[in-house]
Amino acid sequence: MSFDAAVYQYSHLTVDHQRHQVDAALTAGRIATLGARYIPRLERRAAALLGRAEAIAVDSGSSGLVLALRGLGVRPGQEVIIPEVGWVSMGAAAAALGAGVRVAAVTETLTPTWEQIAPLITPATGAVILAHLRGRPAPDTPRIAAELSARGIPLVEDCAQAWGVTAAGRPAGAWGQAAVLSTNTYKIIATGEGGLVLADEPRMLGFMRAVAGDTRQPTPQAVWRGKSRMNELTAALALPQLDFLPTLLDSLRALQQHVISALATVEGITGLAPATAEDTSQSNGSLVGMWLPTATHAEQAANTLSRAGFGCWWPGPGDLHTAAAWPVQPEQPVVDVRRYLDVQIPWLPAGEHAAFAHQLAATLTAALKESPC
Ligand SMILES: Cc1ncc(COP(=O)(O)O)c(C=O)c1O
C-alpha cells in the first residue's frame, strides 16, 4: 500500500492562504522589513507561543544564535558550551564572536543532562546552548536552567526543531535567557529560510534589534550593525502555518501514537521516543525516535525506509547535526549517536493511520532481519 496522501512538507497544507498573504503584500508594495505588517504580527505570535516578552524575526535560526550570544555579551576569551547533537551553527555562532566552544556529550535523549554540562563549566563560560531536538524537549531543562541561573550563566534554548514542544509544563524556549526558532525548509513551520530570536530583557532585545539591522533602534553607544532581519514575504509565509499549527500537531500526535504502538513490538528497537502518553503530549508529534543495536543496523534501516518512501533521519558520517562533523568533539561521549534513527510522521487522513503504522513496522522488521550484524 502506498500512502499518496502523506504530506511530509507540512508547509504545503496552507499554500492557498500563504499565496493570498504574499499577494496582499506585493499588491500593497509592502515587502521590506521597515513598515512591514506581517513581521510584527509574527513576532507577537511567536513571543506569545513561547511565553517570552518579545521575538525578533530574522533571516535564519543561525543568525538568531549569533544575535542571542551577542546580546548576552559573549566575547573573545569566553567559552560557550553546546550539545553534541544540534546543528553546526551553534558552535559557529560562538566562534564568530571569538569565543571557544566546549561540547557536552548527549544521553539517549539526544540532549545532555546537567551531569554532562557541569564538568565543562569554568570561570570562562559565557553561555550554554541547550537544543530541544527532534520535536521533543530536552528532559533535564528545568535542572539545567536552575543550576546555570544559580551560577549567573545564561542559557540559550535552541528551539529550531521545537515548534509546539513543551518542556516540563512550559513551552520549550521559556526557560533560558534567550530562545531561537528556525523556519528553514525542514522545520514544522517552513518558509525556505528564516528564524526568530526571543528574550525578555528589554536592553538585550533593543541591542539585538539594532545589530540585526533595525535602523530605527537606538543603542546607548555606537555599535557595529549587521543585517539579518526577516523580510515581509517570509513572514507572510509563516503566519498561516502558525495559525494551522494546533490542527497539524493534533493530527501528527494521533499518527505518532499509532506508530509508537506498532514499533513497540519490533525486535531490536529500544529507547522508543516519545515513550509515554505525557511525552507524546510534550512532543510536537513530528517524529518517532529509536535506538538500534548497532550503527550498521541504523544505516540499513534508514536506507530501507527511504527506499520504501518513508521520511527518516539517521545521523551518519558527515551529518552536520552531530559533533562528529564539527571541529570540536565531546570529551567523554555517553552514547554512539550513529545508532539513533527517527522516522518522520506525515500529515495523513486519520483513516490511514493504522495502515501506515503497520506498514512502517513491517518495513523496519524486514530491514532489521536483513541487517548483516
Ligand atoms: C537544532 C538546530 N539549530 C539551529 C539550526 C539553524 O537554523 P537555520 O537553518 O534556520 O539557520 C538548525 C537547522 O537545521 C537546527 O536544526
UniProtKB/TrEMBL annotation:
Superkingdom, taxonomy of origin: Bacteria
In-chain residues carrying the UniProt-annotated modification N6-(pyridoxal phosphate)lysine: K187
Active site (UniProt): K187
InterPro entries assigned to the protein according to its UniProt record, in alphabetical order: DegT/StrS_aminotransferase, PyrdxlP-dep_Trfase, PyrdxlP-dep_Trfase_major
Keyword Transferase recorded: yes
Pfam families: DegT_DnrJ_EryC1
UniProt key word Transmembrane: no
Gene3D superfamilies the UniProt entry points to: Type I PLP-dependent aspartate aminotransferase-like (Major domain)
Single biological process term from Gene Ontology: polysaccharide biosynthetic process
Signal peptide coordinates: none
Keyword list, A-Z: Aminotransferase, Pyridoxal phosphate, Transferase
SUPFAM superfamilies per the UniProt record, alphabetical: PLP-dependent transferases
GO molecular function: pyridoxal phosphate binding; transaminase activity
Cofactors that this protein relies on: pyridoxal 5'-phosphate
Family named by the database record: Belongs to the DegT/DnrJ/EryC1 family. L-glutamine:2-deoxy-scyllo-inosose/scyllo-inosose aminotransferase subfamily.
Protein name as catalogued: DegT/DnrJ/EryC1/StrS aminotransferase
Species per Swiss-Prot/TrEMBL record: Carbonactinospora thermoautotrophica
